[in-house]
Structure formats: structure tokens, C-alpha cells
Amino acid sequence: MYETNYHRASSVQEAVKLISGAAEGKYLAGGMTLIATMKQRLAAPSDLVDLRHIAEMKGITVNGRSVRIGAATTHHDVASSVELEAVCPAICALASHIGDPHVRHMGTIGGSIANNDPAADYPAAMLALDATIVTNSREIAAADFFTGLFETALNDDEIITAIAFEAPAKAAYRKFPNPASRYAMTGVFVARRDNGDVRVAVTGAGSNGVFRHQGMESALAGNWSPDAVGNVSVDASDLMTDLHASAAYRANLIKVMTKRAVAAA
Amino acid sequence: MAKITMTVNGRQVSGTCDDRTLLVHFIRENLGLTGTHVGCDTSQCGACVIHMDGLSVKSCSILAVQAAGSSITTIEGLAKDGELHPVQAAFKAHHGLQCGFCTPGMVMTAVDMIARHGSGLDEATVRYELEGNICRCTGYHNIVKAILAAAAEMGGARQAAE
User: Fold this and answer.
1) Taking the domains of chain A in order of start, what are their residue ranges?
2) B109 contacts chain A (CB < 8 A)
3) Does domain A55-166 fall into CATH 3.30.428.10?
């Protein structure tokens, strides 16, 4: 790891101030991706501003069907939240399958979303839940937030402070994990609202990151059942091919994971 | 350079290290507690698992400065008054190790797992939660047996005390 200077912020305001004084600063959340990347010398921030001790960025609030999750809330805390489980068990289940127990004790929802790894689980949930990404300066709709591989709408020095969404009537997430890394080779989050609106978001498969699948959505809006997606065609031309799976294999996984998610919702 | 203080195995310790020093290196080299191992160095194997503020974490993926002010337990902090911790005793009784390199991480993981699930811990959960710990010798069977036995014994001990 290259040299770096560590700073610990106790408020959002202090974090912004600390990073503005840095040559090439980076915010450090749980660090489960960033520290590993720095160890490989693929990232070399001059300064790290630790967000893990900012009380205002932690915790889960559920008010009726309205959910707000502080960005520094760990995967473990999302997975084990009784309040969240009562209104949106799908997001608890998703969090309980990220990495391993030790990673879940450190990794945070805000960190995962800000990193926007094309195989991360949370971005699919954000899109399908029509979530709002709250930052220190504005609110961004999930639809406008994820802009490409590891790319987001965040400005330099902008901090995600929370995510907010209305819990849907039904939702579930299913992924086909890579047997070694457990990252999603394809993951599908489905959500259905009381008004019949359906969203299907796919991670781990798109060559430009997380995306919604309109074909699946219209099929499921007409008939909310696993059988409804059988005849939906999935275009493989915009899907990733790598050593783990071809685009055609991922196209089939999208269908299979959608079926499983709908069956589980 | 950073001067940091933390509580390790119940004792307050201080040390000076680079901001980039990993917690596992601080524990091994500054504090001389070499029970915590570095296996893969890519945050996959779990040989470096310790507890930070009561939760299992991978000390190879955390900077020592991030842990400043926290309370750390390492494998050296488990045995009390020369008596093995019940999880350590169960690993011995069930031959839950061969070469022993992964064992400190396995034991720390098991203690955390039992603390979260109690005596209701079942085999499927144990196997699922060993996701982040790799053992190249045992095939995991005896590790799973040891953890289940320790969970049952510790649950029993709690009931007996009540």
C-alpha cells in the first residue's frame, strides 16, 4: 500500500472540510473494497476521511412504509433489523448474503452504492425500490444515480448520507453467486407496488452496470407469476462476457433469477 | 505516523505506526501477538479474524488507525486462567484442525457465531457462516462438529448458570 494520511470525521460537515484540504482524498466507509484496492496499489488516495464514526449517518428508521437507512449502516445491521424485516424483508435478505460475516460487520450500504461495483447487490435493490440517494447537498433518484461501471452521479467530495424508499407490497432478490468470490454473476431484484407497478433490476450482468429490464417488467405487470417471464426475450448483446460466464449464459440467468425472485416475493 | 491507543484483550495498549499499517501487522509486529495470522493477504481466507468492539472482522482489511479507540479481542485473549475457552477445547476434542494455520481465525469466527446465534446454531448456519474462512486441510467437517459442540456446551453452561 502506498502512503496515505488518515483522518477521522465526527460529522458530515467535518468530513467535507477534511477532504477539501486533501490533494487526492477519498472517503473511507467500511473499507471492504477500498482497503483491498489500496493494498493492491490500484488506488492511492493521499488522504482518507473515515466516515464510520459519524453518528448522524448510522441507523435505520421505519415510519409506516417509509424507510430511511443511514449510509454508514453496516450490512450486518441491515440484515438483522427487526423494523426493516417487518416492511421490506427482501433488503434484509440481500444484505445477509453480501460477502461473509466479517465483511458484513464492516461494509456499509453507502459505501457499496458509492462504489457501484457492477456485480454489487445493493444497486439492484436501489433501482427496483425506486430509492432516493440522499447526499450532503441533494437528493438523487436511483434511476439517475448509477451512471456506469464504478461510476455514479456523485460529485467530487459529495457524501451519501442516507438512502430512502417506500417499502413495496412485494419484493425479493435472488442472485447466482460466483462460487469463489460470491459476487453476483447475475442478481435480480423484483418489486411490486400496490398500484401494480413492477420493477425488475439486474446486477452482475450488464456491461454498463446495473439496469432495469423492461421486458420482464411488462410481463410481470400483466401477470405476477414466475411463469409470466418464460417467453420474455433477453438481449445478450449488452451483457458482460468474462471468464466466469458468457453473455448468453448471463441472459439465461436473468430469466432464471427473475423467476426465483418472483416465486420468493 | 500515527500514535494510537486501543484496548487489546482487556489491556490498554499504545503504539506508533504508519497510517497505512494494517491492523493485523500492528497486532503481530507492534504488540507481538502472533496468534492472528496472515494467510491470503487478499481478505478472503479469514486467518486474520479478530473481534473489534464485539464483532468479528478481518484485521488484514482494516487499518490500525481505523481501530484506534476500539476494543479488540485476539485469539490470545480467549483462554482464561490457563483454561482453554470452550470453543478452543471443542476444536481440540473434535480434532478441528490439522496444520493449525487457519485455526485462530476459525476459533474467533466460531466465538462470534455462537455469540450471535446461541445454542440454537444449526449445521447449515455454521457452514454458511464459514464462508469467509478457508481451511485447506480438514475438509471442514470436524470444524463444523467442534463449533456445534461448543455452541451446545456454551448454551448448556448458560442455562446451568441461570
Assistant:
1) 5-50, 55-166, 170-264
2) yes
3) no
The residue with cell 453496516 is A74
- d(CA B114, CA B121) in angstroms, rounded, equals 7
Instruction: Specify the fold of A170-264.
Output: Enolase-like; domain 1 (3.30.390)
**Which residues in chain B have their CB less than 8 angstroms from residue A1's CB?**
20, 22
Who's near B87: CB < 8 A, 6+ residues apart?
A: B78, B107, B110, B111, B114, B146, B147, B150, B154
- Candidate from A2, A36, A50 with C-beta closest to B43: A36
Q: What class has domain A5-50? A: alpha beta
Q: Strands A47-50, A25-28: parallel, antiparallel or unpaired by DSSP? A: parallel
Instruction: Write down all domains in chain B, each with its CATH number in brackets.
Output: 2-77 (3.10.20.30), 86-161 (1.10.150.120)
What are A39-71's pLDDT values in tens digits? 999 999 999 999 999 999 999 999 999 999 999
Which residue out of B4, B50, B53, B56 would a mutagenesis test of the A interface target, given it has the greatest number of A Cβ atoms within 10 Å?
A: B56
CB contact under 8 A, A102 and B19: no
Q: What are the tens digits of pLDDT across the range B6-51?
A: 999 999 999 999 999 999 999 999 999 999 999 998 889 999 999 9
Q: Chain A within 8 Å of B63 (Cβ-Cβ)?
A: yes
| A-B contacts at Cβ under 8 angstroms | 73
B53 in Cβ contact with B44 (< 8 Å): no
* Distance between A223 CA and the closest CA of chain B, angstroms: 34
How far does the CA of residue A50 sit from the closest CA of chain B (Å)? Answer: 8
Q: How far is B81 from chain A (nearest CA, A)?
A: 28
Residues on chain B touching A39 (C-beta within 8 angstroms): 22, 41-42
For chain B, give the mean pLDDT. 94
Question: Residue range B127-151: average pLDDT?
Answer: 96
Cβ <8 Å between A6 and B49: no
**Measured torsion, CA atoms of residues A43, A47, A51, A56, in degrees rounded to the nearest 10:** -140
CA angle A37, A39, A43 (to 5 degrees): 45
A218 in helix, strand or coil?
Answer: helix
The answer to whether A100 contacts B129, with C-beta atoms less than 8 Å apart, is: yes
Residue of A159, A132, A153, A164 lying closest to A13 (CA atoms): A159
Residues of chain A positioned with their CB less than 8 A from the CB of B22: 1, 35, 39
